Amino acid sequence: MAQQHLDPTDPMAESACGDALAGYLRAQATEFLRALRLHRETGGDGGAPARTKARAGDNGSQESVDAARALRRSARRISASLHTFRPLLDTDWSEAIRPELAWLSGTLAMEHAYAARLERLLLALHRLSGAAVLPAQTGVPGDSADGTADSRTAGDTRPPAHPAATVERGNLTVGAAKAGALLERQLTLARTRAHSSALQALGSSRFHAVADNIAVLASEVPLTPAAATADLRPLAGAAEERLTDAVAALPLVTAGNPYNAEALIHGLSPDPAPHPQDAPWHQVRLLLRLHRYAREVLHGDSAPVDVRLLAAGQALNRHRDASEAAAAAAQAARTPRIAPATAYALGVLHADQRHEVEAARFAFQQSWQMQTVGTP
Amino acid sequence: MAQQHLDPTDPMAESACGDALAGYLRAQATEFLRALRLHRETGGDGGAPARTKARAGDNGSQESVDAARALRRSARRISASLHTFRPLLDTDWSEAIRPELAWLSGTLAMEHAYAARLERLLLALHRLSGAAVLPAQTGVPGDSADGTADSRTAGDTRPPAHPAATVERGNLTVGAAKAGALLERQLTLARTRAHSSALQALGSSRFHAVADNIAVLASEVPLTPAAATADLRPLAGAAEERLTDAVAALPLVTAGNPYNAEALIHGLSPDPAPHPQDAPWHQVRLLLRLHRYAREVLHGDSAPVDVRLLAAGQALNRHRDASEAAAAAAQAARTPRIAPATAYALGVLHADQRHEVEAARFAFQQSWQMQTVGTP
């Protein structure tokens, strides 16, 4: 039943059993420990992120960032495999460690997420302005309730023959720059807090218990007695089925119809972000990841790269990022006493990111369509 | 050369000569005079538009609105035919009357344009809010610099356990409603002024001179001596060629790529609206109209409806309408002392309409593609 989903041409698929799962988990655990060692060596737990530089990768060394990413990467894979192949593993052990891994990768992901969100929003403001809007480059005045007065500092040196036009032109440019400065302030603060939380987490006894568990896993995987010879394919197939069921429930016909204007519906509604309409897509993103990791378990290092699965996953990542960036812009617009020009720029930015959400859904639909056609 | 563009299966096409042009112009002139009479009879020149009702069609009787539309319709067709078939008509006469017709149809079009623009923007706000935002329904307070205070009147009756959240939720709803009220005020004022200008125009000696000219045209078309037997097809073909040349210069590859994010580029730039990138599309819209009217001259009443040409024209109308609505939202956001929540809503609205612009370009590309494939 579920076996029909597997690629029958792959030589590894035939022999995928509990041993393959144990090998995969041992390899990921080893990778986790290697990344943890690297993270400690490269000073990943030293110093807060520089407050004036918020671009991704500016914090600490590139090695430290890579190490944190590798930690999250293996934690996600271990957690996913424990979930998908649950019946083959010691239940008490796996049910105890999964929430701990989720806590860890969630905590470690936040700092990077805030940095990436800020970069995405500043790039969008840049694109929308047709000019550099990074505060450091424009010398933006601080936000105040009096946008009109501030806009006069925009440095338009033409003679004041059309003063109204000058102020109008200045307003929007200053609006974009001030919106950028506001987002930079808010998201850098959030990122700094996330950095502290991550440091606290990595120094906690809770984390040391996780690391101890992973160290054990690197040498001995707690399989059930019957697991060694059990076929992994039904469980992997069930994971794929959960994915295809969730995809089937998505509004793909609408998503495949360009410019359907769905993503911005309720863009001004009183409901707070995040948009409820995004949730099923976020869920598919997680299920796609589980499916991808289950394929890794089955195929081992010889796993063929499925470019269509990759494209679908990238579309869903873009969907998630744009959705959260749009929410951050809307959130920033609720800051008290901002200038109208700042609020206007944040409104444009919010709508721009919601259209990115719509574009990502279209991209997902396109890649998913291709996949269905390609695998008869 | 140009003849290859014509439909060889149409029986009328073979016999299209100066007589057909004269017949077409006489018919349009008669239609103009009929619409003018109807417009006067139905009180088209009585009373200003009601200031509290700004929806299209609420002003005066439906008959009066229809009559004004019929007036513009025939004025456009006469003017277009004089342009396309210029060499076949008395030069002095046609060069004198064309600018007058352009002035007339331009003046008459403004009132309707403002009404339609307001309706488009209020519908968009409605869609974006997921709730009624028409000021009459929500009892919106007037715009003031203090948006936070106003937002408390939004009528949230929940207990004040989370006062911050209550204000935030209220802010955006009130923002959309206030943006709607602001646009209604500004565009109704513009519409009232356009109505007065149209009335003034219809009572002017300048208009009476145009009407006299059209009355002469209804009985006697000033063709050149050679025109009666001249083939209309080369001139009609030249009009089509101007269209296809202009279309070929459009960025159709980009437009056919959904979610290309082109239309919102420079959405926050200091350049004032209208967007320069829209101009070539507006130009194609005019050339498409000239081509369509030239086909009417050639085919007479038996002109087959070209649904693809129709779809392309509708896409370009939508492009024009969305472009102007986006500019109106940006313009409204420059109103001094508006609340940040109002400015935010106008920003979202502006971006929404710019995406409508992009969607219209995509729709044009799709219909134009079909046309090329359909006419081998």
Polypeptide structure, described:
The structure is a homodimer of 376-residue chains. Chain A is mainly α and 376 residues long. Chain A folds into 2 domains: 1-16 and 231-376; 17-229, no CATH class. Helix content of chain A is 68%, strand content 0%. Chain A contains 12 helices and no strands. Chain A has helices at 18-41, 62-84, 91-129, 135-138, 147-151, 163-203, 205-219, 233-248, 252-255, 279-299, 307-333, 340-374. Chain A is globular, with a radius of gyration of 24 Å. Chain A starts with 17 loop residues before the first helix and ends with a helix. Chains A, B: Pfam families: CHAD. Chains A, B: This is CHAD domain-containing protein. Chains A, B: Residues 14-373 form the CHAD domain.
List the helices and strands and how they pair.
The structure is a homodimer of 376-residue chains.
Chain A: H1 18-41, H2 62-84, H3 91-129, H4 135-138, H5 147-151, H6 163-203, H7 205-219, H8 233-248, H9 252-255, H10 279-299, H11 307-333, H12 340-374
Helix pairs in contact in A: 1-2, 1-7, 2-3, 2-10, 3-6, 3-7, 3-11, 3-12, 6-12, 8-10, 10-11, 11-12
InterPro entries (chains A, B): CHAD_dom, CHAD_dom_sf
Protein name (chains A, B): CHAD domain-containing protein
Domain CHAD (chains A, B): 14-373
